[in-house]
Amino acid sequence: MSKKVFDYDDTKGASYYLTQVDSSSGQTKINWQLLAVRALVKENKFAQANSILSSLPSGLSIEQQQEKLLSQAEIAVKTGKSVNLNEILIPSLSNSQLYRYYEIKLSLDGKNKRINDQAHDYIELGKYATGNQEKQVINASWSFFSKLNPSQISTIIVYDNETILQGWIDLSYAFQNNSKAIAKQEDDTPEIIAEKTKKQKESLKQIANDWLRQHPDHPAKAIIPLLTGEQTLSIDSANAKKVALLLPLNGSSRIFGETIRQGYSDAIKFFPQEPQQNLLVLDTTTSSLESLIQQAQEQNVELIVGPLLKEEVIKIKQLAPTIPVLALNKVDDNSSTTNKMCYFALSPEDEAKDAADHIYAQNKQSPLLLVPQNDLGQRVAQSFAKQWSKLSSNTSRAYVQYFGNTKTLSANMNRNVGISLTGAPIFIDSEPTLYSGLGGIGFDAIYIYSSYDELTLIKPMLDMGASKAGGSSLSATMIYSSSKSHVAHASTDFYYDMNHTEYADIPMIANRSSYTVTLPSNIENDYSLLRLYAMGIDAWRLANRFNQLDSEQIDFLNGMTGKLSTTEQCKLTRSLSWQQYLNDSSQQPTPKSE
Fold first, then answer.
1. Does the pTM exceed 0.70?
2. Which of 305, 462, 473, 512 is most buried (most C-beta within 10 Å)?
3. Minimal CA–CA distance to 353: which of 328, 388, 399, 402?
4. Beta strands 572-575 and 563-566: pairing type?
């Protein structure tokens, strides 16, 4: 039997192969059964796949037996069961089977943290990759090697003829030693920082050229322009990409889904130079994710955008469809998937991280966070503190003070009770949680993450607390607020109370006057919906560039929701626009000094 029988068509779903099984017999039927199993495994239908495998007759040919063992190993890896690869006869496998074999082995070696074996697995994968697999392997290989520390790299055994492996190691060393964060001195001006950044980029380009001279035929040469910043994300293709947009279009989340869909559909009006998409909109409230994925596969969809709700993103990650996914929310775990999956969300944690960047850039030393006393408030505080610790190299710490709901705040306001600043240090993750208070005089920045209604009470209560403490105002302490409290048509009293307070919001809201496209009337004066509309626009632009999207890219896209970057596991983060409230109700931009 020809090994090519098992190089099946990825565009065909399991239903196609099962139909072929029903209309065949003998050895041909067995071959179709094995192909159907492979398709079912790709669709994560493991029970059905196992049922077919157990029904296969004895006396399979060597090729059939090896295909069966490969499928059983894939199922075991995906379901967390033990795998014995020793039964698989490597010399009898075709190139496509060898690619699957090393995918399985890489997953097992990664789980067991066998660095040397993982390094060699990536090299083997590269040998048998074809088409889109080649780019995926290059990106995955760089993601692996670039994160190894020197002691981990030293455990990798490189033989004389392993030039590709040596190239990856040399590249990892070169970039790790020359792409560290720029050290900022206290008296550095923006011009000095810009000059340091320019010199670092020039140094990286020189190092990359030196590496290329030593490794002219190495597969990583394809990503060097991206690593040095000479190449930014380009549009994948001039042809219309077929995209399935998965959103909740009924029920309690309908308003969110419809607004994102509106933004996604209107994006071409804002960016007419970009190609149209062949769009398939699917409602996650009327069908299961499994059936929606099957619909997408049957219609030859190239990319899934969505789903939106967190539980559905967790579910689609578990299902790991063969089609790449741009999820519109984030998940907490960092486990990898067999398909390419990126995550784009309007995350409060991202906004807190950006606030830390902005406040630190203004040379503040002792920030205090005022956040709600709930899970959201704790997550915001943790995200801010982690970034602050990274920026300050642990030389200063962020503090937190929690507030109650609007009812509690209003009651205290009526009793003339101000807010005294007595924050507790934010301990990150597993640090000891010993309480240590700090008087308000020690804080030079306050970041308030609250709703508009909460902020209308918090700001005057802060002034009241400061006045009672020493008869002074908060004029020496800079106050910052989040987009959560920025609304259209705020009251005159609000602008008066918030005078000179800086706030963050998405560029689409900050730069509304620069857009000539007429916004839908139902959202133009509702900032919460406008942010979702902007998210839809950015999701459309990201879909046009998805094949270029990889980990660790900084400010690759000036989006409507912010400057977009990717971190590990292809999670997108945002840098927002910072502005300032003035009591004449105007809103003047405050440039970010980064």
1. no
2. 305
3. 388
4. antiparallel
